[in-house]
Amino acid sequence: MSVIAPSSPPAPRSRLALYLDLIRFNRPAGWLVLIWPTLTALWVAADGFPGWHLLLVFGLGTVLMRSAGCTINDIADRNFDKHVKRTTARPITSGELSVKEAALVGAVLALLALGLVLTTRWEAVAWSVPAVLFTILYPYTKRFFAMPQAFLGIAFNFGIVIAFAAVVGEVGSTAWLLWLANMCMVLAYDTEYAMVDRDDDLKIGMKTSAITLGRFDVAGVMAFFIVCLGLTAWVLQPYGLGWPLWGGLAVAAAQVVWHYTLIRSRQRPGCFTAFSKSHWMGAALFAGVALGFALR
Q: How far is Cα of residue 166 from the mean position of the Cα atoms in its chain?
């Protein structure tokens, strides 16, 4: 009779591996959904290519702040994440990283992002202060606010505001309309994300848009996407970007239809795929704007 040896515990991960897991390095969807609307705003504010300096500041700054936001979120949710299937193995929740060490990682990342913004206008630096505050506040809104995705949208959309402040020194109506359009985009894709964890969130008492919308969740996601694309078309039409803009909008609209096929049954795999691929809408819109300015 053969004897089955007990399985050995998994080998402890290196500090670098834990840090990369903490900032979701292997899940780029989180910073991709941030970078495309930020770059779109940068191009619109600059009336075309903004220059390599600003492109580097906002490209790298977006990645750094998203990574810092992940550490803040995991610190705030560490006692909840252990009850959610998708998050039980996160470094803080599993005990592999202490809260103090994770907070230090987040602080370093945020300071690096601040250092980048300091190379631009003082108006951009000023707007970065509330951006950090909303990034810290967002995870805690899931305890009491029915639509915490709206707070997430505010935090995510500061890239648009700061881009305009860095280029022209002010935040005008065009910036705020793009801000509102992307707020709808965030509400759409983060509701898809919340649909993945809805059963677990109900058990632990978390608030999410997927729970608040209930049986209207799919309709809500579609409505948010449609308003986003409509607002984007309206605010950018006066710039004369021609067929590239309309082509980008058409590609994004086709993806909205695809998202409907993924989430209509409300199954976890489909909803997660929809969220993880949602950044391609932003990429299509940015490509239309950038090409439109280049050919104008």
A: 21
